[in-house]
Amino acid sequence: MSEILSVERLETPSWGRASGFDLALPDRRFVVLYGPNESGKTSLASALSWLIAGPGSASLLQRFGRPGDEIAARLRGRLGADAVTIETRVTVPQAASKRMVSGKFSASIAEVALGRSELTARLGGGDFDGYQRLYWVEALDIADGSDLQESVSVQAMFGGVNPFDQSSALSSAARELLGASRGRAAEGSSRDLLGQIGSIDTELRGLAGARDEWARIEADIEDENDERRAIERRLGELGSELRSARRAARAFSEGVVERRNRLRADLASIAAPTDDERELHGRTTQVQADIGRLAAAQSGASQAQTGYDAALGAVHGDWRSMVPNAPLGNTAVEAAKLAAAHLVEAMREQGSAEAALQGAIAGYQQWRVEAEQLRSEWEQEYPHGSAPDRVIKAASRQSGSGSSRAAVIGDSARSRWSRLAGAVGSLVGTACTVAVAVMLSLQGDWRIAAVGAVGAVVLVLTMLLAWRSLRPPDDEMVRLAERRVAAEKQRDAAQEQRGVLEADSKTKRSLTDGRRHEHTARLIALGVPPGLISRFESDAVAHLETVRNAQAAGELLVQRRRTEAVQLSTLRSHFAEAASASPPAMSMPAGTAGSPPVGDEAGAHQSASHQLFEDTAGAEVLLQAVCDRVDSYDRAVIQAQQAQDDLGRAVEFDGTALEHTSHSNPAALSMLIEGLERDIEILKAEFEQRGQNIASLTADARALESPQRSSALMSLRRSELMSQVESHVVSGLGHHVAARLLTDVAERHRKTRQPALLERTKQIVVEVADWTNVTVNPHAPTDRTDNLLVDSPRGEHSAHRLSFGAQSLLYLALRIATVEDQSAARGVRLPLIFDDVLVGLDDARAQRCVGVLTECAQRHQLILLTCHRGTAERAEAAGAAVVAVPPEA
Prior knowledge:
- The chain is of the alpha/beta class.
- Helices cover 65% and strands 9% of the residues.
- It has 28 helices and 15 strands.
- Strands 1, 2, 4, 5, 6, 7 and 12 form a seven-stranded mixed beta sheet that branches. Strands 8-13-14-3-15 form a five-stranded parallel beta sheet, sandwiched between helices. The chain has a three-stranded antiparallel beta sheet with strand order 9-10-11.
- A hairpin with a 2-residue loop joins strand 4 (70-79) and strand 5.
- Helix 12 (330-381) runs antiparallel to helix 17 (475-525).
């Protein structure tokens, strides 16, 4: 199969109006370069042609730069699967000429550097003129087919021979022998000779009394003439047989017969394709398109299977039992997600509240313990001291004065169970006791005095102790009092905060329970088992989403499998009748592990999975086998017919010689030729003898009396003329019949055995116009290239009588057919550059012609240059990529 050269990027740093262009062509075979006049489209086309098939002439370069300027272009693309890079730099010459101008050139294919000659050989040969003639067509040249008709002439069709010219020559010879039916007869023709015979008959009727001798001589001469004519006819027959035998022998010696027989045997050994196989061969493009659609469907199914497996793998094992259930609705899942979000938020707030509560409880416990410890320490250190808060206040007011001290003492006494009052009482009591004792001593009762003295001593001691307890607070006492008071305040504040947080925690717990109930209800409505809800709770929605994703992936897989089954069924329908003649079909497994069921259609498809093929590779193999079978048989038929035609030309279309080639052999022909030569020599001798007899009888007739002699001479002349008339009539009718037969055979061959090039041209034009046939013009003048005839409902017309639009269509189709034929020979399919080739077509034909170009783009990269928006839009609608020229910044 020929490789396709496709251009992916074209850079023209300096090349006429395309200077500075850098075009990235889309990855499509059909590309439209759309832009106004003088936007650089033609410059791009010339640069691309120069890169692929250059170098060109100096006169061409001067269109794209001033003399002395260096112009440059670069191409990146692919040849089949190999990367291609071509770059050229050339200086514009001073003078315009047809001289080829080369410059700096570099190229590589698959990163292998090539020279210009090596690149040309790799691309199948050819030169710039040849590429420009076939592959690069401008709008004004599309209706000119003068350079395309060499291979579709009558001579080309009949191997260098023009049977129509030979038929005309035979007809002319027949008219010369028989004479025209009207007007003056040509001298020497049968009609002229019959006129002379009529004159002689008139003179003979005027002669009377002819003797019997004259009649006898005349009868003898007539008999001799009859014999002589019979011998002449026999000589002609033998001569014709001899020529036929010699032609057949020459065909044997030149190997033409052996080649004909060998190709016939080859044809007989090949089984003729069925009508169904031929129909399938004719629908190759449609079948290939269906193969492409099947490949896309199978790729989509494979991707869907991968997606389904991944989605199913993402589902937790405990949740997979929900995948086969009814599909989860998006609305219900979203509601469950919202409920889960509310639950998570409520749980988060509850957790925060409980954490705050636990912190408050811990803080309260800490401050309670610390306050208790400080109280114990205070009571241990100052068991009879003042209250800590009073100590702190007193310390803050202490200024060192007595009044202040007394105030401190008073404050301490009031705060310490009236200790100060007790101390004062003790002091007063002591004073009283002393006074009693003194008084009693004065009275002389010592015992009363002693008791009073003891009481006084005790009171003094008690007072001293109380006084000591009322000493002013020191710094250590103040600090301890401050710590105790602060700890008690923190304890009370922590207890108050604890109560607030306990109420808030209870509120948050109630909200969480409500959210949990709502979340559970949503999940149960979706069919989630309560056990899973309790196990996964807030994570249940995430698992539910994986289930929904798996269900969606399963539904997509079902659709893709169904599409694959439909495409496979469609493709198989093409091969239904032709399958028996094809190689065994490839097959693939009926299903894939882990796949969900794909419905009735897919099941029916899988049940017949090994009937023909299962994938595109099998379809392509089967299609290729059928196409090869049909093509091989057609090639064998064409080769056998060509061999038969070559044999016909070798024997000059002699039917007898053709019979000899079919039923004889060289040895038998040699013996036949020798026998015919001997018979001809014998008949020639007899013919000469008859002539001598006629001359002798004529001399005898001349010796008779004058009337008799005149009558005899005229009769002799009449016999000679009659003999000539018979000979002319036989020969003329033979020429006429031969001319008619040759014309009929050639015309039938012309209409039924068209060259493959014209058959392809016909296939293209009938898709666009209402033409019925395109054939060779048998009567084309030799001074004009007008070798084609077009059949349509309006009659048969030669190409030069068609309109510009019709000529554009005809020669565009012939050009595409020629390029396809040449591409098959060279092994590389080069890009086609068509410059506004649709300008001569009406809208309907232009639309259909775009379809032809789209079909052509499947075998070649096709670059259509146009300045017409309608053309660009039609091409884009047919799948072409439209690139603006100049390129947008």
